[in-house]
Write a structure and sequence with these properties.
Structural class: mainly beta
Number of domains: 1
Order of helices and strands: HEEEEEE
Distance between the termini: 10 Å
Largest sheet: 6 strands, antiparallel
Shape: globular
Strand order of the largest sheet: 4-3-2-1-6-5
Oligomer: single chain
Strand content: over 45%
Number of strands: 6
Length: 90
């Protein structure tokens, strides 16, 4: 992912929500809050902070997601949260 692509992702995510489904098929709406570039073992990673809210759920939580080059599908498994898939708008 180039800086230009990351910028596009950032703008697209801010302009519209990123949606996904939990394993129980409930809709999850996420907004990208922070996107920053990191290097790990020579690999370029983009770390994205998403604020996720469940449809018909009171719970709102924030999760770290690692986005690698050319990766559009993101899987999150944290603290019992199991989103099946998030499609990134890029």
């Amino acid at each position: 992912m180039t800086s230009q692509e990351a910028s596009h992702l950032h703008l697209a995510a801010r302009a519209s929500s990123i949606t996904g489904l939990r394993k129980d098929r409930r809709l999850v709406i996420c907004r990208l809050l922070v996107l920053q570039k990191k290097r790990k073992k020579g690999q370029e990673l983009w770390e994205a902070w998403l604020m996720c809210s469940y449809y018909r759920d009171v719970a709102v939580l924030a999760e770290w997601v690692l986005v690698t080059r050319a990766q559009r599908r993101v899987y999150i498994m944290r603290r019992g949260l199991a989103l099946s898939r998030l499609e990134l708008p890029c």
